[in-house]
Structures are given as C-alpha cells and as structure tokens.
Amino acid sequence: xxxxxxxxxxxxxxxxxxxRRVMVGGAIAGLAGTLGFSALTKVAQASSHGSDAxxxxxxxxxxxxxxxxxxxxxxxAAGGLSDTxxxxxxxxxxxxxxxxxxxxxxxxxxxxxxLGGTPVMAxxxxxxxxxxxxxxxxxxxxxxxxxxxxxxxxxxAIAYASEVAQLKTPELITAGATIAxxxxxxxxxxxxxxxxxxxxxxxxxxxxxxxxxxxxWVLKV
Length: 221
Prior knowledge:
By secondary structure, the protein is mostly helical. The protein contains nine helices and no strands.
C-alpha cells in the first residue's frame, strides 16, 4: 500500500507520541521566522519613494495578503481539530506557525507603511476550494488539516522565493528570503510531525522548494 494512503491509519496508531517531540521543529521554525526582520524596518525609510518604492509596496502587499490568509486558515482549522493527542499535537504546531505568520504580518505592514503604501487589510474569510478540490488536505480530520497546512506552507515558501527576487531594495530581498526559509521550515515541521507519528516519509523530500518539486512536498488526501 502507498505510504500516503496509510497516513491516516499510522497517524492514529501514533497518537500517544509526545506533543513536546513534535513541537521541537515548530520552535526552530519560530526562531527562523524572526531572523532578518530588523533589516526590513531599518531600510524602509531609507529606500527611495519613487517607482522602486511603489514596486516594493505592491510585492510586499501580495506577501501580506497571504500572511493574512495563513493566519485565518490556521484559526479556521483549529476549531476542527479533535481533543486527542494527535489533534492537540497538530494544534500546537498550528499555533506556533500562526504566531510566526502574525510576526510576518505586523512587520510587513510596518514596512509597507514606511514606504508610503497602504497595507492590504485582512478579509473575513479566504477561499481554500482549490486546495480541497486538488486533494491537498481537508478540514474533516486531524490528519487532513495537517496536510492542508503543509500545502499552504509549501506554497508560501514557493511564493516568497519567487516574489522577493522582484523587489528593488537589496536589503528587502535578503530579509524576504529569510521569510521564505521560515515557511519552508514550517513545512518541514509538519512533515516531521507525520514522521514522529509513524508515517514513513522524508523530512526534506527534495533539494528545492519550488513549483517543480511541490508534489514531492505535499501529502495528498
């Protein structure tokens, strides 16, 4: 039987695993999410306020939109998690990842404002139908919520890696790259949780996090 098809069964059989064990990666990801952010705030006001600033505001607002989406998605999914050890382990990781996204949101908003732009506001809800229709996760069980979070974090890492290259301010490119690294760390943390619960997958399934390797990172329902 394919490893992915056995995921739910192994997840449940590994329900006694320590929450502390699966949270270790989340703590590392949280640290990674804070690195480089001082660069964002330090260079914003020193940057030009012409076309370069307008370009950077547009790109950063795109990133901010997806930070809002991630924060909302983790909040929406949290209510569907069970009170089992597995559900609470997934919740612990979700809250740690969500906390990083809130840091990203706050600092991106500050930089956009410092560049003379208007930060995009959070929406009341976001459409996840594309993920659900592709089988990239779901909201119907602990294991499928974890898979959905993995897909979202993988896409965030891919998006940051491609979008930050279009920024005009070198320091912002560097700082944005650290956010991409944090998103990849989030994805790896979720994969580590599956491994800790008995699923036979690699922590890092490909040497790159890109559109070409996306299918190697996500776990299908």
